[in-house]
Amino acid sequence: MKSLIKKLVEAVGPSGYEGAVRDLVKAEVAKLADDVRVDALGNLIVRKGKQRSDGLRIMLSAHLDEIGLIVTHVDENGFVRFTSIGGVYPRTLFGGRVQFLNGAAGVIGGEKVDSAEKVHALEKLFIDVGAAGKADCPVKVGDLAIFERPMIDLGKRLVAKSMDDRIAVAVLIETLRKLENSPHEIYFVFSTQEEVGSRGATTAAYGIDPDLGLAVDVTATGDTPKGTRMAVKLGGGPAVKVRDAGMLSDPRVVRWMSDTAETAKIPYQLEVLEGGTTDARPIQLTRAGVPVGCLSIPCRYIHSPSEMVDYSDVQNSVRLLVALLSNPIHLK
Amino acid sequence: MAELKEFLKKILSLPGLSAYEEPVREVIAEVWQPLVDEISVSRIGSLHGLKRGEGPDPRRRILLSAHMDGIGMMVTGIEDGLLRFTEIGGIDARILPGTLVTVHGRRELPAYIVQPPAWLLPDDQASGRTVDMKYLFVDTGLRAAEVADLVRIGDLISFAQSPIDLTSDWVAGHSLDNRASVAAVTACLQELQRIRHSWDVWAVASVQEEEVLGGAYTSPFEIRPDLAVAIDVTFARGPGSPAGYNTFPLGKGATIGWGPNIHPALYESFKTLADKLDMPWHDDLMPRMSGTDAMAIQVVAEGIPCMVLGIPLRYMHTAVEVVSMKDITRTGHLLAQFIAELNVDTMKNLRWDDES
Amino acid sequence: MTPKKAATSQSPKIGKAQIALLERLSNAVGVSGAEGEVRKIVMAEIKDLADDIKVDALGNVLAIKHARTEPALKVMLAAHMDEVGFMLVEGEDGLYEFETVGGIDARQLPGKPVLVGKDHLPGVIGAKPIHHTTADERRNVIPVDVLRIDVGNENGKKIHPGDRATFATRFQQIGPSLVGKALDNRLGVTTLIELLRHAPAHIELQAAFTVQEEVGLRGARVAAYALNPQLAIALDSTPAGDLPSWDGEESPRYNTKLDGGPAIYVADKGTLSDPRLIQHLLRTAETYGIPCQMRQPGGGGTDAGAIHKARAGVPVVSVSIPGRYAHTAALIARLDDWQHTLALIFHALQDLTPAILDTDRS
Q: What is the ipTM of this complex?
């Protein structure tokens, strides 16, 4: 699975421009799926199975997109000003390298700051693409870039720029591969534009009209020195989300997920996340309402160029998803 | 009214935090059951009661939406047997220290919200200022080992304040926002047993208003009403809420909303009706959004003409909110009489004032 | 049909009639949630231009001009009718406390004339005389809740809390510029009326004159659901912040520039435009020699933010006419930018075929 993960996390796909990642996923799932389509917002919707009388129509959602930057201005000297696509923290930027969708590369520099303690505000930063002036600058207003950073394999743990949420994309692909017999009609949605407000999942859910929705995404941890206080840690198993800042999971779904994990003896953690949300939010509010939950993969340093996950959590996430989807579901 | 008050006090004594409305929903369903023709629960837990009208098929539909969810808290961490927590819905941390709560663990545990002394807190939480919610604890009085057995991350914490009869008319308690409106809709359903109406009435006790307007976005999609009324509490005048355009005297009538969330023709109809009934009422001006279920209902599918009725309430989002029973029964009466007036021409007459 | 087609292949011109219509629309009062006056003008203008016209539950005007050939692409064009303004909330005898509706900077308010209520009664937002202020006080912004709208005691009998008000600015054409209080977005509304007048024969044109854009894109949400288009374009007004910076240095921030032509959106707070539509607009501009500019990616938003999330999703792009000083008493736009915007959308629609949706969004 590690080579699949490497391929996915090193692909380029900022929100709204997920085509390259989508093509990779398409190639992986082509032989495993019963139906594959792309909708108006670029979501890749992969159906597996046909609903049996004891089955449900289920939507799983892992987002293809990653946070990135977009050019707002090229000045007379060829320096490139930019703004963020998704939740980019300025403190992660200075000195970083970026890769544009058109192939150009650059490094992030900044205006002089009064004190070395200070973090550059976004508008005080610029990308230096090595141009001598505006005329030979290889990018223009509206061009997008992502943070260039190859994956590193630390053995138990993996680090890459877009574990959020390519690790979940890998988990869904692997689940699709391993799932042998299910009473359910399952839509594996590789969604777009999550980082700017789960826009892809909003329309995918409307189109699918599921009986049950599960987002698969990363969540923060509380296991680093003097970090945020949070009862989720790397290596503790997949997290069953109880709530985040934008959504309260359906309590019946939380029970089903934790009971299944316990029965299958898969380690899991309960998650209450106080910032951020996932594709489960819009799915819940789709049409006449959808019971939703979220399986989270614990991840350190989210929205930095070096997001870290634990490989056993990843494998257990696949195991838990397979266990969840293999049998009839009775929410209670 | 005595009966309605007992019902209200009963649902005030039940938990029903956003997304976890089941305990309160069951009791509301029991009371609504004999008042409606059909009762059902939406896919995300809203209660739908359908009382059919006498008009010929296909009948038009009016939806009454009163959210049943209440605010509360949720366990985020367990340290030495003490619980860290976060809020569900908006809570001012200043009302919390010393509050009696119930922790809904493997069994229900009485507990108090406690504030650690200043020397155990970061410098910016010095004594004399508010201690942020993330530094407060819930203490169950139990030892750490027992707490570990009984409580998990994500367990709910609800206010344990039982309802108080302040006067024969005023009731205090938690979750009066918005169980007061559930009581008003119930009063309306009771009155509809005695009067004729041609439209179908869909009474909805909606879920998750305090978090994402969850019920208000979803139930109307399923029901597709021609008109909708959101019933919610509004700000009563009192300590902390002095006279101003957006506060109203307690016990002196319901409020009728006006603003972008409200169809102007519905506003006119309700106003005229309240005057006809010789009922006191106040304009509740909502220049931008109403902060009620109507925000969502109005923009469901192709759009739904909406109205907002308000019941004045003091000390909103504390465990000791106060309402007047009279305002609740008035609201129920106004709704029932409005429903009685709905006829085959209502939609045709629902015009914009620029339409000739 | 053939001769007609030849005649309409030229893009429509902004002439005296269009400017007069813009003037009426800009002077009309249509604060979010109370767009009636604008709606009335729109309804009268389009009654013979569309095949099917309705007003929905929120007050949107939805007008459909059917295609005269098959298969026809269903294209939604949206322009919001509402403007930012005020609602009186409390007071009597002609003096009223008020709230702002939509994004208005409190610094824009003191000392401005306003129009109040359905009868456009004149009023003013006064301020404390400078004589009674201290230097310190003058550095602080006067908060909205201490300001009052004063209509005089006599007219006070004719209005009441709940009434809406706007800046009183009258429309003016000054040299190359258009000045008005509500050019955001009556420019878009007028443009959409002209596009309806010159609708291409091969497209089902769904014109949505929307409400409540300034308070959360609410009209567009239900309009898009009802119309269920295959793709959509939002026509709006966007700030031109191309003023000199205080230190005379080149400013990297301007959003758009006056005289730069129609502004095409790539990314704003609510939308990442469909790249297929961006490319189509850029190609159209190049083919017909129409100047255009990319709006700087960043905040702000248009009806497109609601439209693209309708039902199973709609490819969208926004095109705005640049204007200085949006959401103040006077917005200044250029006639040329307006003309070029009309031309760009007109030709983009003429050249639009269902083939644009053959490839997946990149």
A: 0.94
